[in-house]
Target: Transcription activator GCR1-like domain-containing protein
Amino acid sequence: MATRLQPDCNPVGQNPGPGVVGFPIPDPTGTAVARVPGRDSFWNTRPDPCSTLITAVKVKLPKCRTARNRTNLLYTLNNVHVSSVTHGGRHYAPKVAGDHSASLEGRKAVGKWKEGRGAFENAYDHQHPIDAMLGIAMFDAKRPESYTCSRDCLEPPSTLLREIFPWVEAEQAALAARRDQHGKRAEDYALIQFLKLLLFLRRVLLQDAAILFTDFPNSFIFSIAPFDSSVFRDWASSASSVVERAESCAREQFENIPNYLVGTLRGIMVNQQIELYQQHQLLRRDLLTHKPLEEPQTKSRKRKCKAVTEDILPSFPTSSLHASISPLHVSATTTNQRIPEPLGIIPAIPMQPTPSLSTTINADCSAMPHVPDPLNIIPAPSLLAFHPGIDPPVPGIGDQSQQLDATRNAAMDLLRQRYGTARVDKHEWEWVKPKPNLPAEPLPVYKFQTPPTLREYWDEWTMGRNGYLSIHELNEGWEARWCRNQSGLKTEKSCYKKLYELIDLLRSRPNWTLDLVWRFLNDRFPIPTQGIPELKTARSFITYLQKKDGSGMNAVISAADTYP
Model:
């Protein structure tokens, strides 16, 4: 609602001093100062840029309905550029933070809400009562881990899935084609999520229908396609047994959770002991096969070196290994499993010198109960025999590690063939899984060099600098994965991309070349230029191009229209 100006306020255009378009300016000599010391009637005036204040400066603007639109309108009228956000979205921030188990104080802090009681919980904190929802579904609300949806194990046939909402795939393909044709302007996130929801709902619909079919096979819905087909009836007839088996397995696993965790922890500790033993034997083998001194001069010198070698090569006693190293038997089924004993203290492996290298170490396979192990611990061999003059065997080091090394070496060789050995070796590489169900891939480690000139920015994007791969090659080979979801790398990447878009747009103009683009930028936008903030450095010029309203980019394009 528009508010009229008070008598002691002057609209813009009638006040000789500086003012802000759309805001009333207080008159310090007004009568309100004398009436109420310390308070002017100006503070009772609510600025509304859609009221007569805007009419006073003869600006035609659409009707504003929200405070946010009014504020953004004032920014536009007064040439104020705001690109930072000081708090999270009023509804988005507390909801997403709460869905990921953030505390109430944390949800308030992320949005900079005031401490104490207020309208936050009633207006903005829309959290689902998880415990009440579990309770009404007849699960234990105090133990959320007991919840399980057994019917989710039913996988409907693909022919049935395609008969419900059969147009979803076609719409997804059309949306993807439109996005490829028009770019980011064609993004429709609401439609994308809606189509995904339909794919999820048709699967849930078939699962629920299969459960209902076992209890109410003569219901009217089962006389309608696709529920009247033989494919659905054959699949639904076996659904009850699958669901019952899943429920019994889930119930048994939940009842055995404490003992299961105990067995898992014991398996982890035993695996650490096995790894320690393997490392010790590797060190012992390397030192035994290496001569202590080349061409010793006397026998006493040999005896002395042998004594030193024995001192620094301790070994494990048979009793310790018998108690600590046993193969772990992993059972794939969840029924008829032996529950492990309560976790005891695994004896430490003392470092004592062995009396002889011909000691035979025998690990009893029956000394340890069966342990359900989700970590896929590789079992140790049950018999390790050492003989003099022969390198001791190393348990657990075999074809698997060699195959892994061969795979990684082959992947690095392909990268060297594609980009060159010198450029690939210039980077540090990390093996990272892009997704849990995909194998690991080598990701390059790269830090932006932020050069001082625009031309060097361009070279780093297109050709690479100082022997590193170019940013274009990184994007082409690893897309956004090489940034590792780090905000700093993504911010720098957007700066480089904005400059690339400008130069690519300029050189695509008729009769424009890359040399002409650089000459134009040096003539019209010389860097550095004192007194002009956007031309102070190359980075400030890129920030000028990144203005959200596009004014920076439009100014450069307009200058190119009149050049040379």
Observations:
- The mean pLDDT is 69.
- Strands lie at 9-10, 25-26, 360-362, 383-385, 428-432, 441-445.
- The CA atoms of residues 448 and 488 lie 10 Å apart.
- The chain has four domains: 9-77, 150-254, 289-391, 414-561.
